[in-house]
UniProtKB/TrEMBL annotation:
Cellular component, GO annotation: mitochondrial inner membrane; mitochondrial intermembrane space
GO biological process: ceramide biosynthetic process; glycerolipid metabolic process; sphingosine biosynthetic process
Domain of life from the UniProt record: Eukaryota
Location of the protein in the cell: Mitochondrion inner membrane; Mitochondrion intermembrane space
Protein name: Acylglycerol kinase, mitochondrial
Enzyme Commission number, as recorded: 2.7.1.107, 2.7.1.138, 2.7.1.94
Alphabetically ordered keywords of this record: ATP-binding, Kinase, Lipid metabolism, Membrane, Mitochondrion, Mitochondrion inner membrane, Nucleotide-binding, Transferase
Entry annotated with the keyword Repressor: no
Domain DAGKc: 58-199
Catalytic activity: 1,2-di-(9Z-octadecenoyl)-sn-glycerol + ATP = 1,2-di-(9Z-octadecenoyl)-sn-glycero-3-phosphate + ADP + H(+); a 1,2-diacyl-sn-glycerol + ATP = a 1,2-diacyl-sn-glycero-3-phosphate + ADP + H(+); 2-(5Z,8Z,11Z,14Z-eicosatetraenoyl)-glycerol + ATP = 2-(5Z,8Z,11Z,14Z-eicosatetraenoyl)-sn-glycero-3-phosphate + ADP + H(+); an N-acylsphing-4-enine + ATP = an N-acylsphing-4-enine 1-phosphate + ADP + H(+)
Cofactors that this protein relies on: Mg(2+)
Source species: Stercorarius parasiticus (Parasitic jaeger)
GO molecular function, one term: acylglycerol kinase activity
Similarity remark: Belongs to the AGK family.
Length: 420
């Protein structure tokens, strides 16, 4: 023992390196062991759903998974197969996995999709945006939009996961919790934005649209990867050399919030007998007074000419209120009188929460708006973190258009917060 201790002391550099390596390796192995325990517990919970008896006349529920293997820098396929796929198969669902090969393919595949009981999106914000756009572009979207949607967060940016699932620093736990939430069946209605240009087909978003200097600088952050934690500040700092002050001119027309109609019952009443229907029709025919043409109330549009450093149009899905009585989207017009220091600091905040509305901004609640851009306007929109050419657009709110699976605890928190 003394000889070993003497050798370690005489070679203290190698000893220090070996201790550090063993400590790191032990920590890594312990993390892998904890991840395996999480997967095992999730699979056992999913097995309980698979063991439930169903009538022989009832077919298995069909689940169509749209997987983007390129998400999370190409790791999404491995993450899905290790953490989510076993849970789905053990639950007793008839699972069909559709893997996308290129950007925009999900929109085309949704046009050909046959009837399914569940739609599951495995990817990030871009995958969600593609799937809902393809879904709502269908001729029979009124039927397919009633299909509940599950979201398994596998991408670099997964904005919806903050609304639907509890926050978790462990990626494996976050994915398994999201997959189990699909099996538990609790859903919440989410608003959708319909964004339509003059020529192109409409694009749909569940988070919102951004146009301005912060978005443009945020896209370039990855180019400064070699600066480590300073890359965000560097991207915003160097963007000021291109043009300063950075102002974006536009004209905005908008309509105010609309009153929320009562929610339709999930179960439709049974159809009455034939003689009852005939009696009702005859009674309406003989008793109906002559129709008087109703005057159409003109829409009360507000118009605003703006100069801003950034404009954002966002849904209320991030602060979901299940009991609110009005439907609207948030329009944030940020002041263009910011200093260079404020621009760099706010740019870092925008990377964490892109749709935050800083103090001093003009906030508008609207159900519909038209954004007119001057001729020759350059730049791009960010629609659910996907880049689109900046053109004049009409943005329309589709309230409670889609239902997404969520964690039952998160839904209970939303209802409890609304009551308070």
């Amino acid at each position: 023992v003394v000889k070993v201790l003497t050798t370690l002391r005489n070679h203290w550099k190698k000893t220090t390196f070996g201790v550090c390596l063993l400590s790191w390796g032990g920590h890594w192995l312990y993390g892998k062991h904890c991840d395996n325990l999480l997967r095992r517990a999730a699979c056992q919970e999913a097995q309980a759903f698979g063991n439930e008896l169903i009538p022989s006349s009832m077919p298995l529920k069909k689940a169509t998974v749209f997987l983007n293997p390129a998400a999370c820098k190409g790791k999404a396929r491995n993450l899905f197969e290790k953490n989510a796929a076993p849970i789905l198969h053990l639950s007793g669902l008839d699972v069909t996995v559709v893997k996308t090969d290129y950007e925009g393919q999900a929109k085309k595949l949704l046009e050909l999709m046959e009837n399914t009981d569940l739609i599951i999106i495995a990817g990030g914000d871009g995958t969600v945006q593609e799937v809902i756009t393809g879904l709502l572009r269908r001729a029979d979207e009124a039927v397919f939009s009633k299909i509940p949607i599950g979201f398994i967060p596998l991408g670099k940016t997964c904005t919806l996961s903050n609304t639907l699932y509890p926050e978790s620093t462990n990626q494996v736990q976050h994915i398994t919790n999201a997959t189990l939430a699909i099996l538990k069946g609790e859903t919440v209605p989410l608003d959708v934005l319909q964004i339509k240009g003059e020529k192109e087909q409409p694009v749909f978003a569940v988070t919102g649209l951004r146009w301005g200097s912060y978005r443009d600088a945020g896209v370039k952050v990855s180019k400064y990867w070699y600066l480590g934690p300073l890359k965000t500040k560097a991207a915003h700092f160097f963007s000021m050399f291109k043009e300063w002050p950075q102002k974006h001119q536009a004209a905005l027309m908008y309509l105010g919030p609309t009153e929320r109609p009562p929610e339709e019952p999930e179960e439709k009443p049974s159809r009455p007998p034939l003689y009852v229907r005939l009696y009702r029709r005859l009674r309406l025919y003989w008793a109906s007074p002559p129709k008087v043409p109703q005057e159409v109330t003109p829409e009360d549009w507000e118009e605003l000419h703006l100069s801003t450093i950034e404009l954002s149009i966002a849904t209320r899905n991030r602060q979901l209120d299940l009991t609110r009585t009005e439907d609207f989207m948030d329009i944030c017009i940020e002041a263009d009188t910011v200093s260079k220091g404020q621009f760099v600091n706010r740019g870092s905040q925008k990377m964490r929460d892109p749709h935050t509305c800083p103090e001093g901004s003009q906030c508008i609640q609207a159900s519909r708006c038209i954004l007119q851009l001057p001729e020759g306007t350059e730049g791009s929109f960010g629609i659910d973190n996907e880049e689109y050419e900046a053109v004049p657009v009409e943005v329309k709110l589709l309230p409670r258009k889609l239902r997404f699976f969520c964690d039952p605890g998160m839904r209970a928190q939303m209802l409890h917060a609304a009551v308070q």
